[in-house]
Design a protein that fits this description.
- With 254 residues, the protein is α/β, with parallel strands linked by helices.
- The protein has a single domain, classed as Undecaprenyl pyrophosphate synthetase (3-Layer(aba) Sandwich).
- It is 40% helix and 14% strand.
- A 6-stranded parallel sheet has the order 3-4-2-1-5-6, sandwiched between helices.
- The longest helix is centred in the middle third of the chain and has 24 residues.
- 33% of the residues are buried.
- The structure holds 3-methylbut-3-enyl trihydrogen diphosphate (IPE) (2 copies) and magnesium ion.
- One 3-methylbut-3-enyl trihydrogen diphosphate (IPE) binds next to helix 1.
- One 3-methylbut-3-enyl trihydrogen diphosphate binds next to helix 1.
Amino acid sequence: MSDLSVPQIFDEVPRHIAIIMDGNGRWAKRQGKSTSVGHKAGVETVRTVLQLVKDNGIKIVTLFAFSSENWQRPSLEVKALMALFSTYLKNEIQQLHQDGVCVRFIGNRQRFNGSLIEQMDYAEQLTSDNTDTTLVIAVDYGGQWDIANAAKQLAEQVKAGTLEPGQIDETLLEQYIALADLPKPDLCIRTAGEQRMSNFLLWQMAYSEFFFTDTLWPDFGEREMQAALASYKQRDRRYGGREEDPDQPLTEVN
Ligand code: IPE
Ligand code: IPE
Ligand code: MG
């Protein structure tokens, strides 16, 4: 069994891609349609992208579906997004299971209604032993929430007297951060032109490569995926280090 926690610096194909699926609203507006029509079209793209992920030998995909801040949208839009999420799980979970997809969710799921939480629990339990592809769906997720949540758990251990503050370092904190058991995203794709993280996987993407495309999420397909993967192949991932270069010998500075 391969150790997924070890970074594979020279891999040409990312093991884990993270996607900020943006642009549903603009896609709908361009067609004079309501935002929820855009979100519905966005769900179709999720199907396409899952197939592309498999076809390209990518093992893990994390999709940003709903951020901690998206609750601030109009209540009708939030309602439509919840309904679409629930319908997606209902319609797709058996097929995902048959296709060997392990489905996981990250985020603060306590703010969802009871039946949606049950659907999420069911999806995770049903697919937990699948190993072909891992699909992580980030819902009510915020990178800052994730880090604060990890800090809270360590604080509780300090309070209980089982942990000394001096023992806290990056390696320990990371154990309480979402997806600690998976390799970090190698590549993050954001659609629809914005070049920001919008509070996505702040900790996990410390050394991820980024690919931005102007294409709106409902229009994302094979062409954009190939462009992202081709760009990733060209990247030189140094993780802050440097190989000694015989053509440029190092000298001491006095
Ligand atoms: C992304 O599309 C989907 C979610 C944030 C849920 P948007 O709804 O943000 O689309 P734009 O940015 O308004 O075009
Ligand atoms: C990020 O998109 C969140 C998701 C894709 C779920 P937003 O549309 O919410 O981000 P901002 O507001 O443009 O930063
Ligand atoms: Mg947006």
